[in-house]
Amino acid sequence: xxxxxxxxxxxxxxxxxxxxxxxxxxxxxxxxxxxxxxxxxxxxxxxxxxxxxxxxxxxxxxxxxxxxxxxxxxxxxxxxxxxxxxxxxxxxxxxxxxxxxxxxxxxxxxxxxxxxxxxxxxxxxxxxxxxxxxxxxxxxxxxxxxxxxxxxxxxxxxxxxxxxxxxxxxxxxxxxxxxxxxxxxxxxxxxxxxxxxxxxxxxxxxxxxxxxxxxxxxxxxxxxxxxxxxxxxxxxxxxxxxxxxxxxxxxxxxxxxxxxxxxxxxxxxxxxxxxxx
Length: 277
Fold this sequence. Notes:
This protein has 277 residues and is of the alpha+beta class. It has one domain (3-20, 39-259): Thymidylate Synthase, Chain A (2-Layer Sandwich), CATH 3.30.572.10. The chain has 8 helices and 9 strands. The protein has helices spanning 3-18, 66-78, 84-91, 111-116, 119-129, 143-148, 183-200, 222-229, and strands at 20-21, 39-50, 137-139, 156-164, 167-174, 177-178, 204-218, 241-244, 259-262. Strands 1, 2, 3, 4, 5, 6 and 7 form a 7-stranded mixed sheet that branches. Strands 8-9 form a two-stranded antiparallel sheet. α7 links the parallel β6 (177-178) and β7 (204-218). The longest helix has 18 residues, at 183-200. The protein starts with a helix and ends in a 15-residue tail after the last strand. The model has no long low-confidence stretch (mean pLDDT 96).
């Protein structure tokens, strides 16, 4: 069982056994049939993984769509786009379609914010020119952008980057995390981002930290979550590795094909969780 499996089991048990809930409260999200989607939740969740020691945050209690997660990262930080046609046609991803504003975009959000403020370019330049600075931050929660258009507010909203002794450390800050649907994907996709940025600036990927302010399980996910955390993966999952093509160094040249996940054999069958919109 991986460290991420143990952390996921602990988090789910914490939510289910001692978490708060929104029952009886007015909530924004709804299921496709219009029913309000209530949650059980805990606040202020922190996890730490030292990638240099093989502590990859990959979950094996279920199949993690790590390839799709990396594609989404490329759409946001390489393409710097909010265009849903690009996401579908280039990467085959349609899960953002539920938040289409009617113009085939998700509004002035995510990649559009990265592009507007040149956040990725500034990060790469500053890490090269002043690696030990304490201002290496990408913040997607720009109030001017949020007020400009409708759209879902960024969940994985900020990354903070730090250099030490040849390593690049990353802290991912999330305001909100749907534990069943996205939590495991967010971890591994941002590790992939960390690996690409580290390579670009001539460093090794170091520690990955993940802070979630509100980690929640939706009411229609509870039974499946209980089934998932009751699973017992086979031995040997500690050797799972995410490998980046050693022949590339430019952040903007990487593609999904440059990533290989070694020794990943998650428990089957997988789960299909109903989306709260």
